[in-house]
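thought: fold this chain, then report.
action: predict
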Amino acid sequence: MIAAKRIAKAALGVALGMALGLGAASAETKIGIAQFGKHPQLDETVTAFKAELTKLGVSDAVYDELQVNFDATLIPQMVTKLTSANPKLILAVTTPVAQGARQIVGNSGTPVVFAAVTDPVAAKLTPSWEAGDPGMTGASDLQDVASVITFIKKLLPEAKRVAYLYNPGEDNDVAVLKLMQETTKAEGLELVEVGIDNTNDIPIRVGSLAGKADVIYVPGSNLVQPAVPAVAAAALSINIPVVDASAQAVRDGLVAAAFEVSYTKVGQNAAKLAAEILAGKTTASLGPIKPSYDDHTALINEAVLAKTGQKVPDSLKDCGCFVK
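observation:
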């Protein structure tokens, strides 16, 4: 899921009023797109969805696109407006929008494909990862922990101890922790769990990892991600490289590497499901797509990695994933 800053209520009303002026054009394949708000990764998802759908043969699509500037109270109005245009399919971007679409559209006959939903099962959008709901399925942006560990092993083949920074009070962090426990055990690695419920504790908690961890992994935690500069500074002081779930810290020269979900891939995965539904398949027969290793993007800052005494292994020299 993408967290974003809401803007003032007055501006929201104006923005939605303008956005609800749907295009009058009609075509054989009308698709409604419900987006939570304008955000680079969400925009990337929608752009990739359209391009992939065209590539898959849906060349006559006409899109009715709405967004509510991250005001959840406006989601019902947005979805209702899209549904009134009788689209053949609705793309619902983010968990709140998908949940709103489920409540309003339900099993009315208009299929919904979600995108950028972290855990559709926990969000009660699909009954499992193997099957879709009678009215909905879609593409998740859940980072695949096994793929993260695979990347870490490629980047740091000598690493045996992986420290995981997380907030014990955040459900997503705890869910990832369980996956980290299972995956590191299967890969013969030691997991060092570092619970953080106050960002002021980061320098001490990270500093305590000296001699106890070979690499630190920072997930997409709502608490820890904003404090990555503090994590990076503390880790650098004890020469431990950091792998982040977000690439921005790599571009900013803070951490050594990142392995993040590609929202282009998320959009493409959603389009693949949409194309199958438009061709006649039911949403219930199509399980939600979870990102694989190839649905992630790696980024390495060689200079930062060198500060921790590490070098890029030969196997990654030609990856084309270095900060320039």
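thought: worth noting. The chain is about 35% helix and 20% strand.
final: tokens above.
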